[in-house]
């Protein structure tokens, strides 16, 4: 691949445009922002990884309660440390871009909410999800009783096949009714 | 409720069929874990839904599959066929996998379809470019919408509910702009171009006129283009194209367009709440799964969003346990509660009738002409608007307090307050108009002008009230709280919140006034647009400078239907007023304006119809006759019936599909479990061999530590050997 330290090669730019939902400008901007995050020693390396802590300093992610999950989902690192290569970063931006489809967005949303990576949202996942939404400190968290009531409500509504968990198709079923999911599931640099 | 019980019946039926599925609520551990079995990942339905999961996050599962090749290679190939077909149709970017996996997928596809023609590729890239360009255009257009930035700021700080108010306000501004265009085209334009009647004197500011007239709607303003009397029949005098007819057509167009636009908004909102509503109740899941706004960047906004979500959830849970508590009430409590509600409703009625009587007194008082000091006369002239506006300002808060005693749920409280307030607002306006009609019709003056004048005063005063409320009440209060936070007055006045329902009520009310008044005061849409734009800025100032974010989240979606419905009531009220007025024209001749010389709307249109060719005449006559009404009603009934039955059929289909989903998933669960038990038996014999091969692989990888080759991504083994490589 013809990536250099300062700018992307024409070939890989075209390739990224083909494989992601991003426009040329967006890819270039992403590259600029990514190289800013990179450590000096790795600037030339197309496969260099930015550790999760560095990625989370981006203002776009800083106040997002799901930031760590986002990094973990899009990271291809085999250590599961949430570090991102430039291509992972592009994947992330592509999924959160304006033009990504509802399928892509709901798919990644599901994986972000699936905290234990087992392919379904069980009550443990839902509890973590709700804690992320309400703020995860002692005084912002819901009480145990409220949490129990809430989770049983969610499962009663979305768990269509009554197996005690929400799977991807059930999740997408809920999401497809939401008019503004596509507009809110968005991160633009 | 009924639906849910029906569902349960189905499940019960299923349960009796399915012996493995023992209980509904505590799901037994076996069935809970079935999706973690290996074969589950190979099910066609699962693979369709996650074509790319083998790519990264689920590499372990994928690896497990590959490391156990004895699990049936042939059947796997067959199973993969379905999703592969689907995947090869999808554009690469729509695959949910990482870029490297997409590259591989692309290479795989290139092998399959190597020669896409030049034409095809050009067409594809063209379609992408076109879509991009279209997106850019729409984005640019949406950026051009006024106040986009303001709305964004407000939504970030005060939530969607408050933003809904400002969007509603902007919508009303658009509506009034549209009215302005119609008024200019139908009424102001022809009058300006063709002039007015020959006997009308030219407009001049002088004589007894004073600046005060602009507030009172008298003198100069009374003669000017603001009011009905100005628009006498001009030189445009064809049978079917004359100024009176155009005037009438303009007013009708305004009302009709408003009806269509508002009706459309109401039905859209209704459809929306219906979809999100109790019918398929996905309310909580929706709040959880779509709750977070990923566009939020500001930490303060994030904190706000957290608290919104928390309060919303708490509100929901509270309401749910409230309804539970409600179901458990004893008879004695219930009787006491109903008695209390009865008494409170009597109180509300008493308040309403008191308010109406007050308005009546004010109207009577302001009718009496007398010589006073100008300030006093101004006050007396404005007595009726003052009374109406102040009653409308105070009573909703009283209703709000009252409804808190009634032990309704929070949403119900808001709604009951809203219904009472809108009844108060529209009824007080109606009473005002009725007494005006009664009082003015007896005089042989140009009563349309008097009527227009009163409505003009109502608008002006309502605006002044908004203005004073913001700058003489809210802002000083805020200043006081900022400078002396410890003082008694500051603590008494408390924090200021932006009460969306009441503000929307104000908007609905003022818009109703515009619609009612547009016949008598044709420039009212122009005045209205200006007033609404200024109101927008005043409210923006109030909310950004003085208000704090509400702790209780306001439900935008459920109440916006109510708002638009009230707006619809406003349109109907305006139409009724106009109809009543036209009916009156037959009894009491108008002395001024377009229908001045003993003409009525009916006369003018009859002249027009008579001038048409005979075929058109007879067609119009038929359309207006009873003979046409019957087929029309019949046709409407048939169309409605067909829609209703189609809706019912869809409903049934949905129920059936849900049943099928439940049945097929229980089948799946059963088969997976059977398979898993079979596998377990096999596994115990094969485990020894597999462990041996894995260890062999580990050794190989550790010798060759190429860190970023794709093959390594999917190996579990490389993790195991990492510590050894680093040391």
TrEMBL record, chain A:
InterPro entries: CIBP, EF-hand-dom_pair, EF_Hand_1_Ca_BS, EF_hand_dom. The keyword Secreted does not apply. Residues 101-136, 146-181 form the EF-hand domain. Keywords: Calcium, Magnesium, Metal-binding, Repeat. SUPFAM superfamilies: EF-hand. GO terms for molecular function: calcium ion binding; magnesium ion binding. This is Calcium and integrin binding 1. It comes from Mastacembelus armatus.
TrEMBL record, chain B:
The chain crosses the membrane at residues 171-194, 245-263, 338-360, 372-398, 418-435, 523-541, 561-580, 622-644. One of its GO terms (cellular component) is plasma membrane. Keywords: Membrane, Transmembrane, Transmembrane helix. Residues 63-82 are annotated as: Disordered. It is found in: Membrane. Residues 446-557 form the TMC domain. InterPro entries: TMC (IPR038900), TMC_dom (IPR012496). It is a multi-pass membrane protein. Belongs to the TMC family. PANTHER family: TRANSMEMBRANE CHANNEL-LIKE PROTEIN, TRANSMEMBRANE CHANNEL-RELATED. This is Transmembrane channel-like protein. It comes from Mastacembelus armatus.
């Amino acid at each position: 691949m013809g990536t250099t330290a300062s700018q992307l090669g024409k070939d890989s730019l075209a390739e990224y445009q083909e494989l992601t939902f991003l426009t040329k400008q967006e890819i270039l901007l992403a590259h600029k922002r990514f190289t800013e995050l990179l450590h000096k020693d790795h600037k030339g390396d197309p496969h260099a990884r930015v550790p999760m802590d560095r990625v989370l300093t981006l203002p776009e992610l800083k106040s997002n309660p799901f930031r760590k999950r986002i990094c973990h989902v899009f990271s291809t690192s085999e250590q599961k440390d949430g570090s991102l290569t430039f291509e992972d970063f592009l994947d992330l931006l592509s999924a959160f871009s304006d033009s990504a489809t509802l399928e892509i967005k709901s798919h990644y949303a599901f994986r972000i909410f699936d905290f234990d990576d087992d392919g379904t949202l069980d009550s443990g996942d839902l509890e973590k999800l709700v804690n992320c939404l309400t703020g995860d400190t002692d005084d912002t968290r819901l009480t145990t009783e409220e949490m129990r009531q809430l989770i049983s409500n969610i499962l009663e509504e979305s768990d269509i096949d009554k197996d005690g968990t929400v799977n991807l198709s059930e999740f997408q079923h809920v999401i497809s009714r939401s008019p503004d999911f596509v507009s809110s599931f968005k991160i633009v640099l | 409720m009924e639906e849910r019980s029906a569902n349960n019946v189905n499940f019960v039926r299923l349960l009796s069929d399915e012996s493995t599925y023992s209980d509904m609520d505590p799901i037994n551990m076996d069935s809970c874990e079935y999706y973690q079995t290996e074969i589950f990942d190979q099910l066609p339905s699962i693979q369709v839904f996650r074509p790319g999961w083998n790519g990264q996050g689920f590499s372990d599962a994928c690896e497990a599959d590959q490391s156990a090749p004895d699990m049936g290679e042939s059947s796997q190939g067959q199973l993969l066929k379905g999703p592969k077909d689907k995947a090869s149709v999808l554009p690469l970017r729509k695959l949910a996998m990482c870029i490297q996996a997409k590259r591989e997928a692309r290479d795989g596809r290139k092998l399959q379809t190597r020669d896409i023609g030049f034409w095809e590729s050009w067409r594809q890239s063209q379609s992408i470019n076109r879509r991009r360009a279209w997106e850019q255009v729409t984005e640019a257009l949406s950026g051009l919408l006024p106040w986009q930035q303001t709305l964004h700021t407000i939504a970030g700080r005060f939530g969607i509910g408050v933003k809904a108010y400002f969007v509603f306000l902007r919508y009303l501004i658009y509506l009034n702009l549209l009215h302005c265009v119609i008024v200019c085209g139908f009424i102001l334009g022809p009058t300006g171009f063709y002039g007015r009647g020959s006997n009308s004197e030219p407009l001049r500011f002088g004589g007894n006129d004073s600046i005060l007239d602009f507030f009172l709607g008298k003198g100069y303003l009374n003669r000017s283009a603001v009011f009905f009397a100005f628009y006498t029949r001009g030189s445009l005098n064809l049978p079917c194209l004359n100024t009176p007819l155009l005037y009438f057509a303009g007013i009708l167009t305004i009302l009709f367009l408003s009806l269509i636009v508002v009706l459309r908004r109401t039905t859209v909102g209704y459809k929306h709440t219906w979809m999100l509503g109790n019918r398929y109740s996905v309310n909580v899941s929706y709040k959880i799964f779509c709750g977070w706004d990923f566009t939020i960047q500001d930490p303060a906004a994030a904190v706000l969003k957290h608290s919104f979500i928390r309060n919303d959830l708490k509100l929901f849970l509270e309401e749910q346990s409230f309804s539970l508590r409600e179901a458990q009430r004893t008879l004695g409590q219930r009787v006491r509660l109903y008695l209390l509600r009865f008494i409170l409703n009597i109180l509300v009625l008493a308040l309403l009738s008191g308010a109406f009587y007050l308005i009546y007194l004010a109207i009577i008082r302001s009718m009496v002409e007398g010589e006073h000091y100008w300030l006093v006369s101004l006050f007396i002239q404005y007595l009726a608007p003052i009374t109406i506006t102040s009653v409308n300002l105070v009573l909703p808060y009283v209703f709000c307090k009252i409804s808190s005693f009634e032990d309704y749920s929070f949403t119900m409280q808001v709604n009951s307050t809203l219904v009472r307030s809108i009844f108060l607002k529209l009824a007080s306006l109606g009473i005002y108009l009725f007494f005006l009609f009664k009082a003015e019709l007896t005089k042989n003056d140009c009563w349309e002008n008097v009527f227009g004048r009163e409505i003009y005063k109502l608008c002006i005063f309502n605006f002044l009230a908004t203005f004073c409320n913001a700058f003489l009440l809210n802002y000083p209060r805020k200043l006081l709280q900022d400078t002396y936070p410890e003082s008694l007055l500051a603590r008494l006045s408390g924090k200021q919140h932006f009460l969306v329902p009441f503000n929307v009520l104000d908007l609905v009310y003022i818009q109703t006034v515009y619609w009612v008044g547009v016949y008598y005061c044709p420039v009212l849409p122009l005045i209205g647009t200006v007033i609404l734009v200024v109101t927008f800025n005043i409210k923006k100032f109030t909310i950004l400078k003085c208000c704090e974010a509400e702790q209780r989240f306001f439900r935008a979606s459920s109440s916006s239907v109510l708002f638009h419905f009230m707006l619809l009531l406003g349109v109907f009220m305006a139409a009724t007023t106009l109809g009543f007025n036209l009916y009156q024209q037959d009894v009491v001749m108008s002395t001024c304006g377009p229908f001045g010389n003993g003409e009525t709307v009916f006369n003018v249109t009859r002249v027009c119809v008579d001038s048409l060719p005979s075929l058109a005449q007879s067609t119009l006559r038929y359309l207006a006759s009873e003979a046409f009404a019957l087929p029309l009603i019949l046709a409407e009934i048939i169309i409605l019936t067909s829609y209703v039955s189609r809706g019912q059929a869809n409903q049934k289909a949905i129920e059936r599909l849900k049943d099928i989903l439940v049945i097929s998933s229980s089948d799946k669960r059963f088969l997976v479990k059977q398979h898993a038990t079979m596998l377990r038996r096999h596994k115990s014999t094969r485990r020894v061999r597999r462990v041996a091969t894995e260890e062999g692989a580990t050794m190989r990888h550790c010798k060759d530590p190429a860190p970023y080759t794709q093959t390594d991504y999917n190996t579990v083994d490389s993790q195991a050997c990492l510590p050894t490589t680093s040391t």
